[in-house]
Amino acid sequence: MAAIRLLLSCVNTRVSLIGFDLSLGQPFWYCPANVLRACGVCYDGTALWVASDSTLTCVSAQGMRTVAMPGPHANYVHSIKSAGHGLLGVADTGNSRLLLFDGQHFPLSYLPLEGFGAELPLDAVHLNDFLPLDDGFLVSTFSHQPFSRWKQTSFAWQKEGLGCLFHLKPVLGHTSARVAAAALNCPHSLQAYDGAIYCCSSSDGDFLRLDRQGQLWHETWRVHITDTHFLRGALRLEDGWMLGGSSPRHLEQGGGMQLYHLYDDGRLQTFQVGGPGEIYDILFWQDFLPDLCDVLFDAPAIAETTDDPPRCRLPAEYR
After folding, report:
1. How many other CB atoms sit within 10 Å of the CB of residue 298?
2. Residue 106 to residues 70, 137, 145, 152, 157: CA-CA distances in angstroms?
């Protein structure tokens, strides 16, 4: 296999970032979660933006900078990626909205449940990812049950099979929100490729393709990847897809974090990443990352516990 190196972001895991060498089938670097917490990640030039909890963190060769997210609810921020026009988009999951970020401020927002106003509950539909479209954005949610805020025992989106994709676009200063796909099961990791949308059906362990037909996106292809992992994280390779497998959702089945290489000819290759943990995003490793690894190695700890993994210096052969 040609040398392919990946950067994995991990949430609810003892390590937050992992460098993985596909040619060797093993990790070569990690960042402990007590140095930096992570969920979604993306590149912006030669900087790495990391989304977690209610903050965004920019890691560059010059150091680390943290930006607080606006309320009113805790943000539970998930995905972050380019939104075009020099902006980053941020899935503000706790406030059920997509925020656009210019590096300093949040000048624009898209709210699929805008009409519910101040009554909108915390994490109403578990909006977790997005893709830019020509006339707006496509966002993924676990459930469209806004009125179930009256159920106080658990989040409404925890029931499976009620996931939706919303097509959001601005109209006269407000958000026009239309259901573009429905009956999805915990959709994650939206990716555009070859005119279609691909995403993980996380609880099913399936990877699927959606094609546009008029105003709607319809499932046209699905492949089952795993019975033992929560499928989340997708990256297009030259010969297929790299998909992430998270273990804690199915601990009774055993096994730690895994990567799945789904080839275009249908073959499936599995890589063991590490112990129990949750992969969220998968990116290609970039040449500027060694400087950022040094910044993270020297960064002060967020907190110290006896369970923290030791800090990892990037090996010389990866510089």
Report:
1. 11
2. 8, 16, 27, 31, 26
Nearest to 137 by CA among 184, 85, 202: 85
Residue type at position 130:
F
- Is the sign of the CA dihedral 240, 220, 230, 12 positive or negative? positive
Distance CA 317, CA 217 (A): 45
Tens of pLDDT, residue by residue over 89-143, are 999 999 999 999 999 999 999 999 887 766 778 888 899 999 999 889 999 998 7
Tokens 């995905």 appear where? 79
Q: How far from chain centre, in Å, is Cα 62?
A: 25
Phi, psi (5° rounding) for residue 63?
135, -160
Q: What integer pLDDT is reported at residue 2 of this predicted model?
A: 65
Please confirm whether the linkage preceding 70 is cis (ω < 30° from 0): no
Q: Alpha carbon 209 to chain centroid distance?
A: 18
Rounded to whole angstroms, the Cα distance separating 106 from 166 reads 21
- Print the SS3 string covering 102-142: CCCCCCEEECCCHHHHHHCCCCCCCCCEEEEECCEEEEEEC
